[in-house]
């Protein structure tokens, strides 16, 4: 079901959808429920499921996303250059990865946490190149949500957007609490952690609502520069106190924990997704977006690996504090560099603060894009004529963050993280294959089979680690399916876009699908339950919409 016709004409849903795309920036899309079903496509004998499937698989036309489809008052202002976009990506990544993720990932992996960051970086490079290609082809706000909608249809787009937003909301609340804890550790006289977290959200919401020029370009550029300088100082100062004994054995617990922690480390590279969210505000998106996406990711990867090796070389990994890893390394017992210890706290505050800037910025743009398509409240698509920002969406993002930080059990919600981001990476990689393939349907099917086989093969490998012929045979079946899917993708013919093109296509996008599928298998089982519940809820919504449409059908 791809919007094809039954009587030589396009389905009325697809016709209505294309007309809405043409004026998407002028007003919200009318919901599919209001499209009259008058025999031009579906007949009375069609089932609710058939209508629900057609609703979910209707697609955007890529050419409908160009700037000339939107009136000026409905567009975001293009003010971000290459440096601004690169700093946006670095700011979204460096911070949580060093001051939060590292402390949790080093305990089960030891010095091999550096390998976890490398594996995560490799997986993200595949995804980043695919993001860069589609962002250059569709330079409009919305990131992975918009790309999935354009390539695979409305249901996949909504699935991607909702799951990304769930990850981003929880991650922002955790980051705000972490920032508040660092501030209280340096200034104990400050109010409670939750109250400080509310203040952090308030400051950031006001900053981002004021506009890109003052709220993002100037503030984010200054803070990211200070943050990177502090991290480089930590690496250089620590390098003079590295002991090789602390790095042996380099992989103390085997490769299993290293691979498992790589899924957690992937969340430290989400900056390239933030860059793609700024597509509609980039001055020269076709040139600058790919360079900023790939450049920011490679810079962050090198910084993470250097940081991990240095810290594990300064202090035995078993004694690294999960909550304050840098402070342990430069205490009197080890490196004994008091001036580094004095600035570590402020570096952590700046790191987490800039991560939140780009995180909240991206969330508002996803709501903006979904609202333009009629999938969330139409009020979120409103852009302030004075400030040039999605003011309502930005304020809503802040309210959600405050609610989670003050009321939600975040210590349990953290288990639900990452699966939405990893799923969006796999979908975008598959999207490049489908957009380029001469036979898109076959490319979509092979990509889905490759992703599923990667997930199930990883599960089967963990199950087969205890030995047994049955487990080994099952693992062999899943691996064979994955190899067959990859071979089929490699045998297809692909076009090349006029804008930036992901190199070595179809190999790199296919590897991105497989690697992200493997990382998805490393997510906590509760994250998979969340994914299943979100999918079931979405199916129920589409069925209800189809029932309502059929009930109104004369």
Helix percent band:
55-70%
- Helix count? 21
Rg (CA only)? 24 Å
- Ranges where pLDDT stays below 50 over 5 or more residues in a row are 1-45, 63-69
Strand runs, count: 0
Tell me the major beta sheet.
none
The ordered H/E elements are: HHHHHHHHHHHHHHHHHHHHH
Mean pLDDT rating: 80
Structural class: mainly alpha
User: Terminal Cα separation, in Å?
Assistant: 24 Å
Query: Beta-strand percentage?
Result: under 5%
Name the overall outline. globular
Structure write-up:
By secondary structure, this protein is mainly α. 68% of the residues lie in helices and 0% in strands. The protein is built from 21 helices and no strands. Helix 7 runs antiparallel to helix 17, helix 11 crosses helix 14 and helix 18 packs antiparallel against helix 19.
